[in-house]
Amino acid sequence: MKQIETIATGKNFSAVSVGKINEIIEHELPMGAVTIQGKVFAGQAVGATGSELSFQTLVPGQDSGFLHTHKTHEELYIILKGEGQYQVDGEIFPVSEGTIIRVAPDGKRALKNTGSENLTMLCIQYKANAFTEADSPMTDGNILQEPLNW
Fold first, then answer.
1. In which region does residue 140 sit, left (phi positive, over 0), alpha (psi from -120 to 50) or beta (all else)?
2. Beta carbons within 8 Å of 25's beta carbon, 6+ residues apart
């Protein structure tokens, strides 16, 4: 079973590696009586305080196994590799590398690999409606007048 590796930590940062995209399938996520092959949560490992993130790989023909919703979390699904179908509230549509899907907490969701190669996705969870106009990345960021130290 593949493990998350800590790369570096400091006062204001942490860096981990889940491995190469084609190695995500080697992770196992125990969830009570069920173990999900090819899924790894990385938010806690990296010390994220406002979101959770996970990677998952589905082999050809595999689906996520169940529909699910959330109590308060909105999710972004980013397809990194492969192709498949995504289902939300009974609507099914094709997805492939570069597709991004946002699902509100109440959305009943699932993913299926319909391709001939592994499908790998990144899912980012965060509390719904937490951002306001004041949180725009265009106004929240500060460009510093300090030299880069490469």
1. alpha
2. 37, 38, 57, 59, 118
Q: Residue 86: beta bridge partners?
A: 93, 111
Q: What is the pLDDT of residues 119-132, one digit of tens each?
A: 999 999 999 998 88
Tokens 């991004």, residue?
100
- For residue 130, the 8-state DSSP code is -
Cα distance between residue 57 and residue 69, in whole Å: 20
| DSSP assigned state of 132 | -
Per-residue pLDDT tens over the stretch 12-55: 999 999 999 999 999 999 988 889 999 999 999 999 999 999 99
Question: 32 to each of 12, 36, 71, 116, how far by Cα in Å?
Answer: 33, 10, 19, 30
DSSP single-letter state for residue 140: H
Q: Which two tokens stand for residue 79?
A: 């397809």
Side-chain half-sphere exposure of 123, counting CA atoms within 13 A: 18
Widest pairwise Cα distance in the chain: 53
Using alpha carbons only, what angle is made at residue 31 by residues 25 and 37, rounded to the nearest 5 degrees?
15
Cβ(74)–Cβ(124) under 8 Å? Answer: no
